[in-house]
Design a protein that fits this description.
132 residues; mainly alpha; 74% helix; elongated
Length: 132
């Protein structure tokens, strides 16, 4: 049976240095790494929205038209929901009554969200731009 040779563990280079040398090496590496990272980062970035891009007026018109369609759909939901609610309550069909209530509520909430969409986006932008 052949004899196994066991390798002697080697000490790492940093452990063989005196403690004062290790501390000064670590401090110089930390300082140079910090300087290298900070020199690559932009110190200040400022972005402000503007409406001078081409196509902005067309996008505003398109979004206004989409809001109009959403509001028309909400009016339709409220009217159909009110009809289902009324017919369901008169005929005793409580499933139609409940569905009618949900349609009226959904149409009203949809109209509120569509009306508040630009205010919500502006609020979020203002909140995000306040972070420093």
């Amino acid at each position: 049976m052949p004899a196994l040779l066991l390798a002697q563990p080697t000490t790492p280079l940093l452990l063989s240095l005196p403690a004062s040398h290790v501390r000064s090496l670590a401090a110089s590496l930390a300082g140079s790494a910090r300087t290298a990272v900070l020199s690559r980062l932009p110190l200040e970035v400022s972005v402000t929205p503007n409406s001078k891009l081409p196509g902005t007026t067309q996008l505003n018109t398109l979004i206004g038209g989409l809001v109009t369609w959403v509001l028309l759909a909400c009016v339709g939901a409220v009217l159909l929901g009110a009809a289902a609610w009324g017919i369901g309550s008169r005929s005793g069909y409580y499933g139609a009554q409940q569905n009618g209530r949900m349609m009226v509520l959904g149409g009203a909430v949809g109209a509120m969200v569509a009306g508040a969409a630009s205010a919500l986006v502006n609020f979020g932008f203002g909140l995000g731009s306040a972070v420093h």
